[in-house]
Amino acid sequence: MKKRIMMSVLVIALAAALIAGATQAWFTDQADVPEAKFTAGTVLVNAEEGKPTFITGKFDNVNPEDCFKVTWLIKNVGTKNAQIRVKLDKIWESKANEVDGLFDKIKEDTRIEFADIDALNAHLNALENDPAKYIVSYLPAKNSGWEIYDKDGEIWLYYTQGPLHGTYYKDDPNIEYKPDVELPLVVYFDGERMDNRYMRANFILSGYVEAIQASHDAPTEVWKDAWSDVTDPDYTPEGLAAIYKEKVQETPCWTGKNEDDNGDDRDGEIDSYDFNGNGETRNYSEGKHYKKYYTEVTINYNFTNVKDGSFDYSGTKNVTFKVVLDNHPNPAFGTRIEYPEQNITFEDGAASGTFSFVFERGNQEAGYNFFEVTVEKIE
């Protein structure tokens, strides 16, 4: 089952802290990440205060090959502009002891005599921290402005389209004030490695948001090569980050082409889009003695920023257009509305093309010479 979860909005308060070993003091902060089971909340970051804020996302009763879409909102409430990065930890929490016989079955299948459920959890989390045996991969959504980075075997997520503006700049007419940003992730559970040990196990993404003042090249001074690497236009993930990327990009949650357990194709739900449509009409007739009159309508369509939640949508949808035809020479015919349909394939949130349809006007010698096109529905 493919799922999409909107994560809590977190509030991170940034505090002033000295970075050990640096020759200069920078305003920094960390903030914990709240659990995904919460449906509301905000991370407020303030580069002048400096205490950690944690964020957590909890996935209940996951199955092999499941993929999820999760989103956190991170907001800077301090006065200074801030750059941010996120470090997430992966935690398994088995509930096998709550199902009659399941804990014993797991011990039998693995041939490991776990003393109790805590021992099983320690085992699962040891596997998750093994680069050759882990189950969960994650990757920021396409075109989100976030980059994944492997630093000595640890995964960091860097926001590279900042900074997040501080409140001091709220009324600055020279900038487009942007104090917050979403962190949208695709999370994937490996089908080949995920065996019966994970039955009735919940998964938790837990970690923290780290912010630092954007001025005086502080991110480079503190985050070193990592910041220089991820902000390079030619950056390509390496190491474990590259493996995560490869795994996630093969999932339906990334491609937008889902197939659920009963075989139905599900491409996700379109939550928002930008649309521009135009075109022209052409009138013609056929027949020698009893002519029939027709109007051909040609529509040029252009979709941009098509979103499935916070993600640029890729996949095929049936689009119903609403075409209003008007400006008939005979006022008695009034306005006519047509609803042509097209199967349209979107790629990374965009699609454009042209199609035509024809309707018969009977004995109306003159035709409609004006039309307006909008989108009626996408399904």
Quickly list its features.
flat; disordered N terminus; 12% helix; 379 residues; 2 domains; seven-stranded mixed beta sheet; mainly beta; Immunoglobulin-like
Please specify the SSE layout and strand pairing.
Blueprint: E1 3-11, E2 15-17, E3 26-32, E4 43-45, E5 53-59, E6 67-76, E7 82-94, H1 102-110, H2 117-128, E8 136-140, E9 146-151, E10 154-159, E11 180-189, E12 201-213, H3 218-223, H4 225-230, H5 239-248, H6 252-255, E13 258-259, E14 265-266, E15 272-286, E16 292-308, E17 311-312, E18 315-326, E19 336-338, E20 341-346, E21 351-362, E22 370-378
Can you walk me through this structure?
The protein has 379 residues and is mainly beta. It is 12% helix and 45% strand. The protein has helices at 102-110, 117-128, 218-223, 225-230, 239-248, 252-255; strands at 3-11, 15-17, 26-32, 43-45, 53-59, 67-76, 82-94, 136-140, 146-151, 154-159, 180-189, 201-213, 258-259, 265-266, 272-286, 292-308, 311-312, 315-326, 336-338, 341-346, 351-362, 370-378. The strands form five sheets. Strands 2, 3, 5, 7, 9, 10 and 12 form a seven-stranded mixed beta sheet that branches. Strands 1, 4, 6, 8 and 11 form a five-stranded mixed beta sheet that branches. Strands 15, 16, 17 and 21 form a four-stranded antiparallel beta sheet that branches. A hairpin with a 5-residue loop joins β13 (258-259) and β14 (265-266). The two termini are 19 Å apart.
